[in-house]
Amino acid sequence: MKRLVVIANPSKPQAGRVVARIADVARKLDVHLVADRETARLLPGLCPVSLSELPRSIDAVIACGGDGTVLRTARELAGRDCPVMGVNLGGLGFLTSVTESDVEQALEELVEDRCVVTERSLAEITVRRGKRIVATERALNEVVIGRLTSSRVLTLEAWIEQESVTSYRCDGLIVATPTGSTGHSLSAGGPILTPEVHAFVLTLICPHTLTWRPVVVPDDRAITVRIMTDVAQQVTVDGQVNHPLRIGDAVCIRRSARGIRFLHRPDYSHFAVLRQKLQWAGSVVQDAARKSPRNKSHQ
After folding, report:
1. 294 falls within a domain
2. What is the model's pTM?
3. Contact criterion met (CB below 8 Å) for 153 and 207
């Protein structure tokens, strides 16, 4: 018998309805279903569990919401080897590859072990203040160092292992994983990395220079960013967790020893997701070509 955990974003209007559909399919497929405490309130009868105390017998997590729900799930799993299937109840949904209308079919494919499995790397973040460690986090998407309310430009000193890169003058710095390369980093001019690439991307926010370019760094090397400006600023992890920074603090980012696995439907394609979510013009041409009468006449 498969054992699954469902996690839903209760702020989504359709969350309760989708959880009920998942529970119905689980009963038909003889799947033992439990839920985190917030999700369990959406459907009486679901057994509540804590993600931080998941039993090892759990086979997968079903995360229903937007990318934020998947990011929270990845963080709360805290390195546990439990694959995640994302169901899109939000908008963009890079990490939620299953559509709401395909929930039943996707669960059948999961139970029958027909899903595509992809592995994603995570970043491990340590904030040092002198000799003390004041914060540790894990990120699936990115780490952002930025100012709070002041409009003053920041000076951030970047190191890779023991080698100095440069001192950046900017509004902030993004260190993105391959998964996060399609998020904040992309908006700031960074490149897209495919998920299997073992690298980080360093992307600046509003750099005070005309010659800056994003830097791609192997993720087997530690990146250290030193805070050189005495102005209120913070480090933000996956857009959800913030820690205040002071002048002299050092933010160290390295690849976590444990990543995370995602479950997708059998026809999953990373580039198909990019074509759809980023509305690449080429996909419009390709779709038009597939539908053209000329192509049909040659089939």
Report:
1. no
2. 0.89
3. no
pLDDT digits (tens, 9 = 90+) for 242-253: 999 999 999 999
Number of residues written out for the chain:
299
Residue 112 lies in a domain: yes
Are 34 and 92 in the same domain? yes
Q: What is the pLDDT of residues 33-81, one digit of tens each?
A: 999 999 999 998 898 888 777 777 899 999 999 999 999 999 988 888 8
CATH number of the structural domain spanning residue 177: 2.60.200.30
User: Sign of dihedral through CA atoms 249, 254, 260, 265?
Assistant: positive
By residue range, what is the domain housing residue 104?
3-121+259-283
Report the CATH number at residue 56.
3.40.50.10330
Enumerate the active-site residues: 67
- If one counts the domains in the chain, the total is 2
The pLDDT confidence band at residue 129, using thresholds 50, 70 and 90, is: very high
Lowest pLDDT segment from 65-69, 183-187, 286-290: 286-290
Name, in order, each residue with C-beta under 8 angstroms of 134's C-beta and a sequence gap of 6 or more: 127, 128, 243, 249
Pair of tokens at residue 198: 């073992």
